[in-house]
Design a protein that fits this description.
Keywords: ATP-binding, Ligase, Nucleotide-binding, Plasmid. This protein is of the alpha/beta class. The longest helix has 15 residues. It has a seven-stranded mixed β-sheet. It has a five-stranded parallel β-sheet with strand order 2-1-3-4-5. It has a four-stranded antiparallel β-sheet with strand order 15-16-17-18. It is built from 15 helices and 24 strands.
Length: about 475
Amino acid sequence: MAAGFASIGVGQRDVVAVLMPNCAEFVLAWFALSKLGAVVAPLNTAYRGPLLAHALDLTEAKFLITTVELADGVQAVHDQLPHLDTVILREKASETPDLSDLSVRSLSDLEASGLDFTAVSNADGDLAMLLFTSGTTGRSKACELSHRYLVRHAQTMVETLGLRSDDVLYSPFPLFHIDATVLTVLPALLLGATAAIGERFSVSGFWDEVKSFGATVFDFMGATLTLLYKQPPTPGDGSNPVRLAWGVPLPDFAPEFEERFDLRLLEGYGSTDAGIAMFEPLDQPRRRNSCGKPLEIYDVRLFGPDDREVPVGQVGEIVLRPREPYLLSNGYFRQPEATVASRRNLWFHTGDLARSDDDGYFYFVGRVTDSIRRRGENISALEVEELVETHPDVQEAAAFGVPSELSEEDVMLTVVARHGAHVMPAELADFCATIMPGYMVPRYIDVVASLPHTPTEKVEKHILVQRGVTPTTWDRALANRS
């Protein structure tokens, strides 16, 4: 396959965008392009219109690998892509939609080219991948990931989690996300183990897929553990091959989950920019609500708004420095101002809030931009959500601030009811009043069929913020007046 790419002019430092669902061709193309020293830019398959045009234009990719189905979206914006020259389809080129003046090839044609090529010797700091941030709060940025970043973070997963060559590492998340690529496929490659990548996360099909793969390790994120736990228990819940699951966030019912499914849960902390920076120690008792301790490869601190370290126990922004070269992303591709801003005062600023204890454990609080300011109080949206999700009829919750007529913000809550249950906003507000301070109790509550999610199951909160208060929203202030 590498020879085929070389035959159409793909070379060192060329950016090749990949817009494909999870499939073997995705991984094979990634490895083949790495042999040429090319840069792989996986794109979110949910991108359409302006989002797709923005991502492709930002990468300045001349080549795009995609499928016939997804090529329709490319066709709709191709006139906004001055750099794109060649589209490579997973299927035969004869099945392609009209892509006008773009050259269209197929992977099978390239594989049959038979051209000789010389593999490039990539240096540690050479750019290997452009991996986009999740974009839950705005437009995604493309993180520049070096070859050493990819390999070293895969090694860190092996060392920290005690992964073995006989493991089957399973991820149901997209290959355009760090969990599936850097933290699942590459550790398996280093170990000679098996990487099992599902097509997508499915609540109903999750355990069947785990058993069919013989998965011994899987990753979780967002609402996945909650969705799995709230399924009706069955006698065979503990009859699965999994020994370890890692990810974020770890819910309060983690011990019950572990007992029910007979496995160990492990929480960590990381990002696309920095890879995995913290993990719970495997050989020590769990600290409730802790995302663990910093790994030796990073110096991690908590800073206040003045970029000075806050005392133990106080909330601050997580900042970090690597102790080895090329552990951080090299920056944001073609966005130098954003790169400089994120590395203010020679520390990488994550935008995440946490506190620490005397033993060096960190406790994630929320995003700097995911807090609600109400009546002079700073409210963690994550804390509101965690408390609301203890209600037995609530499947999932998202809290955010909406403008208040009294200045600052009021708390708004959007919830999804558990299957077969009904959530009454007034009753939920009364429940909240019994478990949280008065200033945290939501004024507005919307009960909806589903929340908008990214393909990695993170709530797209910016969509909810833009929607704001709707005609169907229950208002506690109005209810109290009646």
